[in-house]
Amino acid sequence: MNFLIVDDNSKHAEAACIYIKQIKYCNIIGVANDGNEAISFLHKQKILPTCVLLDIEMKKLNGLTTLLYIKTTFPAIKVIIFSSHYETYVINDAFAEGADAFIWKYKFKQYNYLINAIQHIQKNEYYWDERITDFTKDLLKKALAERKEQLTNFRKGFNLSKRQEQVIILNAARINISEMATILNISEHTIKNSLYNLNQKLNTPFGRNGIFDTSFMYGFLKFPRLKKRSGGGVKAIFIS
User: Fold this and answer.
1) Phi, psi at residue 59, to the nearest 5°?
2) CA-CA distance, 74 to 40, in Å (whole number)?
3) What are the beta bridge partners of residue 79?
4) φ and ψ of 6, to 5 deg
5) What is the rounded distance in angstroms from the CA atom of residue 213 to the CA atom of residue 193?
6) Which helix (H) or strand (E) holds 52?
7) What is the tens place of the pLDDT at every residue in 39-58?
8) Which residues contact 29 (CB under 8 A, 6 or more apart)?
9) Which residue intervals of the chain are DSSP H helices?
10) What pLDDT, in 10s, does the model give residues 109-122?
């Protein structure tokens, strides 16, 4: 099983890499510092990762939006969310956006939660680690159904192509037109046309900001609902 690690905290990414390399059937084929790098990596790869280990809270493109892009463009890739946040609503949003498993970072090595996640997703089963007791199968079922309806309504309402959805997500990453064209391997002219057509379809005259705001207002784009950590955040994530 080939992994791409996506985390803007280098210590967390390194700890995950060391752990995964110890699993006999797992390899690391790439490490990305944020969602932008992850998306670019996936488009350049001839052999895609089997699984992406993805943080939610990142300074550039957040994990939920990155997850939406992966599942829109590379639906066969499994995604394990790997986060220091474990609130029920965070887990709910992650699965609604397409996650296959959820691991709380804190002492994740101690009880083989990541190995358990891998075993479940290989059988196409959802998994969240055993310490998370407030999230249930009923909540999972509800989250998946509600998000499916929301995305279906947005797509049908605005009649968007897959390429246009990709452009909406890359637009949210706040990268320039040249970078968008490079990632999608198309011309800058095609990107400009896509942005223009999106303004028309979404009925917004406000350029790239209008595309972003409208996509967020109608629920296509999501942002993590993350609780602020006191004392500068969780510092002892990897103590085993």
Assistant:
1) -70, -30
2) 13
3) 52
4) -125, 110
5) 19
6) strand 51-54
7) 999 999 889 999 999 999 88
8) 2, 3, 4, 45, 47, 49
9) 10-21, 35-44, 63-73, 88-96, 113-122, 137-158, 162-172, 177-184, 188-201, 207-217
10) 777 899 999 999 99
